[in-house]
Recover the amino acids of this structure.
């Protein structure tokens, strides 16, 4: 059962705090902190398919209005919230029968089809080297549903954390999943750099060059630079534990 817990730091974990993860007391040797959107799952493709559906159902102008509302809400809340955007989008469209169909489109989207090649195999491989944990930003309704429906939740055995700004609550992450060393895997180099500044000695950062953030202007000029760079999430299958050591 998910439990939303907000505080001044923006803590909204994706798991109930009452259930401590197995092995959390003594700690793990290595914990892999895995992002979801555009790291394990092609969220750019989801956004493209959502935009195409909006245009087919309501026209190009209304599609543009949805995305403007989406960006406005993200600026206020700090997270991508597709369901709240749909609530705002309904204004003036209550008599359109296609509006209610959008709920099914979002909630029943076939997210397993969006998994990057060998994403779940990669999680299984990492389990042989440490504990894989999902560390994602997002809302507490749609994001966990996406993670569960895609099969990622089961792949990490329920080790899922969802925050408003994950890079700001790494102390909380370390309390939930204590370890000697951490490996953060993400498609956003600026987030990896922010995390590295907080944990300079016990965090290895892995930049996955997938999705539009990975190729945005300035993505190759962040400081500190990622410790490792891979082209696709499946490349981690070829890594050994020694590959995740912090650079000298």
């Amino acid at each position: 059962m998910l439990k939303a817990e907000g505080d001044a730091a923006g803590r909204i974990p994706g798991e109930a705090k009452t259930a401590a993860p197995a092995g959390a007391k003594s700690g793990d040797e290595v914990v892999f902190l895995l992002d979801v959107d555009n790291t394990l799952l092609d969220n750019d493709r989801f956004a493209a398919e959502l935009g195409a559906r909006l245009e087919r159902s309501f026209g190009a102008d209304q599609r543009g209005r949805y995305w403007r509302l989406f960006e406005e809400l993200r600026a206020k809340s700090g997270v991508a919230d597709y369901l709240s955007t749909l609530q705002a989008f309904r204004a003036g469209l209550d008599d359109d029968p296609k509006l209610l169909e959008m709920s099914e489109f979002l909630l029943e989207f076939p997210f397993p089809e969006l998994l990057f090649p060998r994403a779940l195999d990669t999680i299984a491989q990492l389990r042989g080297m440490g504990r894989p944990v999902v560390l994602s930003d997002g809302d507490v309704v749609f994001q966990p549903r996406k993670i569960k429906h895609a099969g990622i939740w089961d792949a990490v055995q329920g080790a899922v954390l969802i925050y408003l700004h994950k890079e700001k609550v790494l102390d909380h992450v370390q309390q939930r999943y204590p370890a000697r060393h951490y490996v953060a895997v993400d498609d956003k180099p600026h987030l990896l750099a922010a995390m590295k500044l907080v944990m300079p000695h016990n965090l290895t950062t892995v930049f996955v060059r997938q999705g539009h953030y990975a190729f945005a202007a300035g993505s190759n000029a962040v400081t500190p630079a990622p410790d490792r760079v891979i082209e696709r999430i499946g490349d981690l299958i070829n890594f050994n534990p020694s590959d995740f050591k912090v650079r000298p």
